[in-house]
Design brief:
Rossmann fold; two-stranded antiparallel sheet; 9 strands
Length: 271
């Protein structure tokens, strides 16, 4: 494989302006890809693309996208096609979390997670599928799953079950899109706290509760997640990105598959 295996490829990444998104964009850029970085509009997205330009100048564009809105999603794909002429790769990374036990669950908060994690996945998959099929050149879609699909956590029910639905939609898309040479695969990380200067938005939301539940501080929380896996590894955004890279460089004839990026969690088997 050449040192620029993604030269002339264009990737659209949802929920890009965070820790995992930054790792993905960084690794894809280093491998020759052009990036349509999408997220909710604002200064964070604009600054994010400036940071990407510091890695490889002129190869990234900021495109506003709300995954819960079909029109916003269509407009984002329109903008990517207008700027770059095509899209070859879609990485669906957008998602939100919430901590609550079932007996205390706020149904409106649960429905908010459904809207982003389930509806958003359906909307992005549908638009990506339509565009890639019409383009007629195949393509790769990678869904950001989670170790919480095979191994959910108490108090994490809203996230675990909505991400399970997200994951299942990816598997179904792999069945439906294969005849068009469009591969759909999943990457399932454990906790990623930051990458470069970018903190995980998910962990900003739930980290305080996780620390409180375990009676530990932030440094001890990171140590807890590192020590619970077999390899005693801290999972980074670049680790997740390397799994994405494996799929989108087509190093094997694979679709409908999941790569765990968790340092080895026996509770998350089968692997």
């Amino acid at each position: 494989m050449s040192n620029q295996p993604l030269k002339d490829k264009v990737a659209l990444i949802t929920g890009a302006a965070g820790a995992i998104g930054y790792g993905i964009c960084e690794v894809l850029l280093e491998n020759g890809c052009t990036i349509a970085a999408t997220d909710l509009p604002g200064d964070r997205l604009d600054q994010f693309v400036k940071d990407l330009d510091a890695i490889v100048p002129g190869k990234s564009a900021a495109i506003p996208l709300d995954v819960t809105d079909p029109e916003s999603t269509k407009a984002a794909f329109d903008a990517a096609f207008d700027k770059f002429g095509k899209v070859d790769i879609v990485v669906h990374n957008a998602g939100i979390a919430h901590v609550s036990k079932i007996i205390d669950m706020d149904i409106q908060k649960f429905q908010q997670l459904e809207k982003v994690n389930v509806d958003g996945t359906l909307i992005v998959l549908a638009e990506a599928g339509r565009r890639l099929i019409a383009q007629g050149t195949g393509g790769d879609i990678v869904i950001m799953s989670t170790k919480n699909v095979p191994s959910p956590s108490a108090g994490f029910g809203a996230y675990s079950c909505t991400k399970a639905a997200c994951h299942q939609l990816g598997r179904i898309a792999s069945l439906e899109f294969a005849e068009h040479d469009i591969r759909v695969n999943m990457v399932a990380p454990d906790a990623v706290f930051s990458e470069g200067k970018y903190r995980s938005g998910l962990w900003d939301l739930v980290g305080t509760d996780r620390m409180k539940a375990r009676g530990i501080n932030e440094e001890e929380l990171h140590e807890y997640y590192r020590n619970r896996n077999l390899l005693k590894a801290a999972v980074t955004g670049r680790h997740v990105a390397n799994a994405v890279l494996y799929f989108v460089t087509r190093q094997s004839p694979t679709t409908g598959a999941t790569i765990p990026v968790d340092g080895g969690l026996p509770d998350a088997t089968p692997r």
